[in-house]
Amino acid sequence: MIEKPLAGKVAVVTGAGRGIGKSIALAFAKAGADVAICARSASEIKFVDQAISELGQKCFSMPVDLAETEQVSAFCHGILLKFDAVDVLVNNAGVYLERGAFADSDPALWWKTMEVNVRGPYLLTRHLVDAMRKGGKIINLTSGKGYSAGVNSSAYHVSKAALNMMTEGLANELWDREIEVNSLVPGPTATATFDNAKPGEERSPEDILSDGPDVLLKGLHAWERVKHPDEVAHMALQMATYAIGGPTGQVFSLARRPMWDAAST
Ligand SMILES: NC(=O)c1ccc[n+]([C@@H]2O[C@H](COP(=O)([O-])OP(=O)(O)OC[C@H]3O[C@@H](n4cnc5c(N)ncnc54)[C@H](OP(=O)(O)O)[C@@H]3O)[C@@H](O)[C@H]2O)c1
C-alpha cells in the first residue's frame, strides 16, 4: 500500500467543519494532500485548518455560505491563488432543512435546500473544473433518498436526485479530459444532520453512536447500521485514489438496504 497516495495533490472539501466532510478532509491530509475547506462556522473550520496544518499539509480555509454565490466565487478565487490547480473536489456540504410533508413545506426552506445542495456544488464545480488536472476526481455526496424518496422531506430528495444526475452528466462531459465523477451515498452516519441537531447542540459521532442501535435505527431499514463518519472518509479516499481509467458516472453506496427501499437516509 502506498503510504501517502495523495502526496502532491490538492483537494477541496466543502462542509468540512464537522461530520463526514471533516473526516474526509483529515483523511485526505493524512494521505498527503493539501486541502481547501469551507463551511459557515468559522470556529469549526479554524479547528480543522489547524489539524490539517499539524499533519504537515497546507490548508486554505474560508467561512463560506454555499447559498451565497459571491462567497462561493471568493472561495474558489482564494483556492486558485493558494494552489494553482485542483485534483479532487468533494461536494460534501448539504442541508436537510425540511422533514415534513410536501403540503406543509415552507417554500423558502424548500428553495434554500436547492441553493445549498444543488446550486452550491454546481457553482463550485463550474468555477474549479477548468483548473482540474488530468486524473482529477469529483465526488458528490448524495443519498439513497435521491433514488427512493418515500414520504416527507421532498426538498432533500429532489436535491439529491439532481446531484446524482449532475454526477452522470458531468462524467460524460469530462470523460475525454480523464476526470472521473462519481456519487458517494454514505447511508446512515452519526452526524449532526442524522441526529437532527439544532445549531450549537451538535454531538460528536461517538456520543451519537453511544445511543445504541435500538434508538439509532428507529424508522430505518432493519439491515442498516449507523456508521462513524470516518468509515465514509475511507470510501472517499478510495474513490480519490483510483488511477486514471477508474470508474466514472457511478454511485458508490455504503448503505446496506436495497437502494429502492425508502426507509433510511
Ligand atoms: N449523515 C447521514 O446519515 C447522511 C446520509 C446520506 C447523505 N448524507 C450527506 O452527507 C453530506 C454530509 O452530511 P453530514 O451528515 O456530515 O452533515 P453535518 O454533520 O451536519 O455537516 C454538514 C457540513 O456542511 C456544512 N454546511 C451546511 N450548510 C452549509 C452552507 N450553506 N454553506 C457551507 N457549508 C454548509 C456544515 O457547516 P455549517 O453549518 O457551519 O455551515 C457542516 O460542516 C451531506 O451532503 C448529506 O446530505 C449524510
Element-level helix/strand string = EHEHEHEHEHEHHHHE
Which CATH top level class fits? Alpha Beta
**What is the CATH fold-level name?**
Rossmann fold
Please indicate the percent range of residues in DSSP E strands (runs of 2 or more): 15-25%
What general outline do the C-alpha atoms trace?
globular
Task: Describe how the helices and strands are arranged.
Elements: E1 10-14, H1 19-30, E2 34-39, H2 42-54, E3 59-63, H3 69-82, E4 86-91, H4 107-128, E5 132-141, H5 154-174, E6 180-185, H6 192-195, H7 205-209, H8 213-216, H9 229-240, E7 251-253
Parallel strand pairs: 1-2, 1-4, 2-3, 4-5, 5-6, 6-7
Helix pairs in contact: 1-9, 3-4, 4-5
Bound molecules: NADP nicotinamide-adenine-dinucleotide phosphate.
Description of the molecule:
With about 260 residues, the chain is α/β, with parallel strands linked by helices. The protein has a single domain (about 10-190, about 225-255), classed as NAD(P)-binding Rossmann-like Domain (Rossmann fold, 3-Layer(aba) Sandwich). It has helices at about 20-30, 40-55, 70-80, 105-130, 155-175, 190-195, 205-210, 215, 230-240; strands at about 10-15, 35-40, 60-65, 85-90, 130-140, 180-185, 250-255. It has a seven-stranded parallel β-sheet with strand order 3-2-1-4-5-6-7, with helices on both faces. α1 (about 20-30) crosses α9 (about 230-240), α3 (about 70-80) packs parallel to α4 (about 105-130) and α4 packs parallel to α5. The radius of gyration is 17 Å and the shape is globular. The two termini are about 35 Å apart. The structure holds NADP nicotinamide-adenine-dinucleotide phosphate. NADP nicotinamide-adenine-dinucleotide phosphate (NAP) binds near residues 40 and 94.
